[in-house]
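Tutorial, part two.
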Amino acid sequence: MKSDRHDVAGWTPITEVAQLLGTTPLNVLMHIKRGLLVGREQEGGWLVDPESLTALLRKRDAGELLAVCQSGCSKHHGCQSCG
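Running the prediction step on this input gives:
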């Protein structure tokens, strides 16, 4: 069943998403902006739809998506997600 985008119960804070992806909360926000993740601002913080996170992880693990920039990569990994 598809999540109702107005109901954020069960959505994941971007800090947790960043840890799962091995990146920074700022990069998670950029992924939301690019449409790679579904996010919503709620009470001063951002939450990520768990279905969109699962889809992103599946694409990444299947090699269908460039790697998420690692924290502190200084744009040297060639993933182009922070450039």
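The helical segments are 14-21, 25-34, 50-61. In part three we will examine how such features are distributed along the chain.
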